[in-house]
Amino acid sequence: MTIIGQLPPAAQLRVMPLHAVTEIYGGAGLCRRLLIELDRLPGARRDAVAEAAHWAAALHAGQRRSREPYVNHPLRVTLRMLCHYRVADPDVLIAGLLHDTVEDQPWAVAGLAEHGPPPVEPALAAIAHRYNSRVAALVAAVTTPPRPDGVDRVRHYTDHLATLDAHPWARVVKLSDFTDNGVGIIHAVGPVVARSATKYRAALPTLRALLDRPDTPLAPAVKGHIGGQLDLAQQRFTAILAA
């Protein structure tokens, strides 16, 4: 991993695509970019988001996704909201950093030994205690529940997305999450690529409907940008599955 001292000047790092930062400078580059972008927030809000980034790194320590440490993904999700979605609400940014923790690392979040069923409610309670109930509610809304036996995995995923109809700000987190997974699918390797393309392609109509809702709290230009990203993701899913 590149160390902070080897990173380029802030002005250069700030204009690089997020996956390019990842490929060239790794997690150190993403962390530095987050600190640069957080300069626009008032001190207490900036510090809260930075602290959440540290906690997310600790919670996802040792976890990997395809070719990279897992924590790179929530860092990009949050950076995308800061840089491209114009989100400055610290609760939403913190939820972006923690959006996968309850689904993937609930024991660590709750501070419990890893045994028995996933302690989802204790994990959400720990997030509410550490931050506030709104952050916990946002994380809860984007956390896919366990899939019952016999339920199709794609249908389970799309059915959960439809529940975001009731959670405007959670839609914003999920749109950034989906963009990172969907547009970024070209950076993944192995059998997961085709499986993910199948699942994500099925989700596109639901995501587009959520994006287009008038109460989705994003500016028209931002919605247009996200729509273009969904188009790009669809092109990539189609190419992968055709191959």
Shape: globular
Rg for CA atoms = 17 Å
Unreliable spans are none
Structural class: mainly alpha
What fraction strand? under 5%
- Give the helices and strands as they follow along the chain: HHHEEHHHHHHHHHH
Mean pLDDT: 95
> Quaternary state, please?
single chain
> How many DSSP helices?
13
**Level of helix content?**
55-70%
Distance between the termini: 33 Å
Chain-wise SSE layout:
Layout: H1 10-14, H2 18-37, H3 43-59, E1 64-65, E2 68-69, H4 72-83, H5 90-98, H6 101-104, H7 106-110, H8 120-130, H9 133-142, H10 153-162, H11 168-182, H12 192-212, H13 220-242
Antiparallel strand pairs: 1-2
Helix pairs in contact: 2-4, 3-5, 4-5, 4-11, 5-9, 5-11, 8-9, 9-11, 10-12, 11-12, 12-13
Description:
67% of the residues lie in helices and 2% in strands. It is mainly α and 243 residues long. Strands 1-2 form a two-stranded antiparallel ribbon. A hairpin with a 2-residue loop joins strand 1 and strand 2. The longest helix is centred in the C-terminal third of the chain and has 23 residues. The relative contact order is 0.10.
Short note summarizing the structure:
The protein is an all-alpha fold.
Which structural traits does this protein have?
single chain, mainly alpha, 2 strands, 67% helix
